[in-house]
Amino acid sequence: MNAPTVAAPAVRHHFAKTMSDPVSIPKAGIERAVEILRSHRLFRYGEDTGGLSEVAHLEAEFAQYTGRPYAVAVNSCGCSLFLALKALGVEPGAPVLCNAFTLAPVPGAIAHAGARGVLVDITPALTIDLDYLALKIDRSGARVLLLSHMRGHVGDMRALMALCQERGVAVVEDCAHTLNAYWDGQMVGTFGQIACFSAQTFKHINSGEGGLVVTDNAHWAAKITVMSGSYMMYGQHGAGPDLHHFEAIRDQTPNFSMRMSNLVAALLRPQLPLLETWTQQWNRSYHQLEAGLSNLAGLGTIPRDQRERYVGSSIQFTAAGLSPEAIRAFVADAAAHGVFLKWFGAPRTAGFTSRYDQWGYIADKPPLTRADELLATLLDMRIAVDFDRADCELITTVLQESLAAVGGGHREPLRG
Ligand SMILES: *Cc1c(COP(=O)(O)O)cnc(C)c1O
User: What atom in ligand 1 is closest to the CA of residue 203?
Assistant: First the structure.
């Protein structure tokens, strides 16, 4: 008698590496941090300091790195966004423009300043929609745009700056994911009047917490310095304006105590010289993953402009070929096989996702058709800096198998 034929169980691949491994702290940074601990001098200011503090050195190096004259180190990027808005004179109740696709600290900074967020729709490249922006500038009368290069996607910065200049709108760049990125040969973070960077663990440099603000404007730099909590020791900065710029503001400007500690600066300083190497490693993986994902039916990659030199520390893609239920199952199946995706379209945002329609503290939330459509199927995956070719191949295989498991994987478009 013939044995009944049993279908061989499908062999499923599993990704075992940690996807959320942050960049590591160089040995020199750890040793310097220990030295600082032993010295007990963790606070950046002192009444009898012999020289520049560790934070002041970082400021000087960061100003040089970004090619901007003034840099102020603070405790987080979110706080630096708040300080930038305050420096620009944003008053409580004032409208502040921001792109609808961003992370919660951005509308949070607007709320922190007591201002009113005015949301702007996005393009299929996940960048701000300039036509919509022009319309919103005219309708809201806003004088400031808080521009988030969310997940590292950079739009046409020359067109954006021209538009904002023409309408008298100041631009604060949120560069949390664009440290070492370029648009059309110019470093991102050097277009807007003020730019803010993050050193939070999951960004491009890692000190757990930390933020840096850069600007070309001495008056704003002085205000940000005093607001960050310099007391009257604003002369102890590494890339600050001449002291006479403080005279008019020092007694008029509140202290918000948002300083960076010397320990944090010690961890960050040796990371700056490694950024270009890290960027190349990230981008190699990004390109490989992008090519792999573009072959999977049901998924779509995000268009990127030739003029954008991004830092591929994460990758976004759409699952427009799948129903919401299938996306949920796909994300769960991939996670069960070691590949962790974030879904911006989930009914409730979770983890490091955020969606504008769930910012309950923003009163005015017109439906944004493009953002709604894109975010509904948008998926996001972190890329660890040390992923190699085999890792990226395995991740693509896991995703392909997860798609197949939820009934996706056809090559023809599933929608429309
Ligand atoms: C992480 C992040 C921030 C805030 O950075 P923190 O240093 O964590 O405050 C702001 N904007 C975007 C887009 C981010 O991803």
Answer: 1
Tell how far the Cα of 281 is from the centroid of ligand 1, in angstroms: 22
pLDDT, tens digit (0-9, with 9 covering 90-100), for 181-222: 999 999 999 999 999 999 999 999 999 999 999 999 999 999
Backbone dihedral angles phi then psi of residue 14, each to the nearest 5 degrees: -135, 135
Please provide the DSSP assignment of 354-402 as one string. --GGG-TT-S-----HHHHHHHHTEEEEE--TT--HHHHHHHHHHHHHH
Residue type, 304: R
Ligand 1: which of 75, 173, 174, 313 to mutate, most ligand atoms within 8 Å of CB? 174
CA–CA distance, 171 with 74 (Å, rounded to integer): 20
Q: How is 212-251 classified by DSSP, letter by letter?
A: EEEES-HHHHHHHHHHHH-TT-GGG-SSPPPTHHHHTTTT
- Name every residue whose Cβ is closer than 8 Å to that of residue 308 and which is 6 or more positions away in sequence: 153, 154, 181, 182, 183
Find the 236 Cα to ligand 1 centroid distance in Å: 27
Ligand 1 close to Cβ of residue 76 (< 6 A)? yes
CA distance 400 to 402: 5
Q: How far apart are CA 168 and CA 146, in angstroms?
A: 14
CA angle, corner 142, sides to 137 and 146, nearest 5? Answer: 90
Separation of CA 81 and ligand 1 centre (Å): 9
Q: What predicted TM-score, i.e. pTM, was given to this entire model?
A: 0.95
Q: Strand 116-120 to strand 144-148: parallel, antiparallel, or no bridges (unpaired)? A: unpaired
Cβ proximity of 212 and 223 under 8 Å: no
Check if 260 has its Cβ closer than 6 Å to any atom of ligand 1. Answer: no
pLDDT tens readout for residues 226-265: 999 999 999 999 999 999 999 999 999 999 999 999 999 9
With beta carbons less than 8 A apart as the criterion, state whether 121 and 130 touch.
no
How many angstroms is it from 333 CA to the middle of ligand 1? 28
Residue listed under structure tokens 């973070």: 189
